[in-house]
Amino acid sequence: MAYGLLKGKRGIITGALDEKSIAWKVALKAKEEGATFTLSNAPIAMRMGAIKQLAEQCDAEIISADATSLEDIENLYTKSMDVLGGKIDFVLHSIGMSPNIRKNKPYGDLNYEWYQKSLDVSALSFHKMMQTAEKLDAINEWGSFVALSYIAAQRTFPFYTDMADAKAVLESIARGYGYRYGKLKNVRVNTVSQSPTMTTAGSGVGGFDVFYEYAGIMSPLGNATAEDCANYVITLFSDLTRMVTMQNLLHDGGFSSVGISEDMAVKLTQVHQQQQQ
Ligand code: NAI
């Protein structure tokens, strides 16, 4: 059911790679809620072509931008304002990539050039997007930035390696820039810390299936899906959350507040019994 929550709002949605992407679901919901927006992804992701299908569905223009390039980001804002006919009300940062994870490097054997790449793509790009927007005065008063994070920023998940550090930086940038942009223009900045989700970025993390199952068993509501995440993000772009800023908002079915669940206790008891047989 649509509520017209984003009626008349203009946005930029990054990171829609394929139908599984969280950004893909956000784009569909944003369209349903009445927004107009542009879609953006790294030039290399464009070659896969799926984003064109989404663009047609959403009646949106695609603007290619490498999130680490200030020039590309500037072009993204300038073109988006041109295409959409005015300043921007919401921006989704749905970008993450770690060469170390891709190459299965453990935390004690990281390649530092790749580490910097992970930080640049997954965290500093959020700062670049806000600093560029500020310089161009591209965002309307009461605009909203959202980036996607993961609980490995606060707690250790060994297989998440340098992405955990990138997420910690990302969340810190949301606080730092949230303060600045709030004072300047009443613009709010938040991160949404999402449950493990079966996407290209998600399932690239070593041991993801186990993470996923574990989080599902621990969470009273189960894992939040990409679609659930999209619904939540839409509320953060809407005027219903005007006073929420500088927060890391946990969207995880309750996972982060549970010590041990009954379901997990049952599972472990079963393992124990099997071992004794
Ligand atoms: P995804 O693989 O569909 O999206 C990641 C996107 O980042 C892709 O579209 C990719 O092309 C883009 N990207 C990579 N390098 C880029 C660059 N240099 N410039 C511009 N774009 C670039 O996967 P998903 O899961 O939808 O990821 C979106 C966000 O959600 C990421 O920040 C991820 O860390 C975060 N997240 C994902 C979770 C999961 O379990 N899937 C859990 C919590 C957060």
How far is the N terminus from the C terminus?
A: 52 Å
- The CATH topology is given as Rossmann fold
What is the β-strand count? 7
CATH class membership: Alpha Beta
- Rounded to an integer in angstroms, the radius of gyration calculated over CA atoms is 19 Å
Question: DSSP helix count?
Answer: 11
Estimate the mean pLDDT confidence.
97
- What is the percentage of strand-forming residues? 15-25%
| Hetero groups | 1,4-dihydronicotinamide adenine dinucleotide
- The main sheet orders its strands as 3-2-1-4-5-6-7
Describe the structure.
The chain is of the alpha/beta class and 277 residues long. It has one domain (10-276): 3-Layer(aba) Sandwich (Rossmann fold), CATH 3.40.50. It has helices at residues 22-32, 43-46, 50-58, 70-84, 99-102, 112-136, 161-185, 200-203, 208-218, 226-237, 262-276; strands at residues 10-14, 36-41, 61-64, 88-93, 139-149, 188-194, 248-251. It has a 7-stranded parallel β-sheet with strand order 3-2-1-4-5-6-7, sandwiched between helices. Strand 5 (139-149), helix 7 and strand 6 (188-194) form a beta-alpha-beta unit. Helix 1 (22-32) packs parallel to helix 3, helix 1 crosses helix 10 (226-237) and helix 4 (70-84) runs parallel beside helix 6. The chain is globular and about 70 Å long. The chain binds 1,4-dihydronicotinamide adenine dinucleotide (NAI). 1,4-dihydronicotinamide adenine dinucleotide binds at residues 14-15, 17, 21-23, 41-42, 45, 66-68, 94-97, 121, 148-150, 194, 196-197, 199-202. 1,4-dihydronicotinamide adenine dinucleotide binds next to helix 1, strand 5 and helix 8. It comes from Larkinella punicea. Keywords: Fatty acid biosynthesis, Fatty acid metabolism, Lipid biosynthesis, Lipid metabolism, NAD, Oxidoreductase. This is Enoyl-[acyl-carrier-protein] reductase [NADH]. Belongs to the short-chain dehydrogenases/reductases (SDR) family. FabI subfamily. The active site is at 150 (proton acceptor), 160 (proton acceptor).
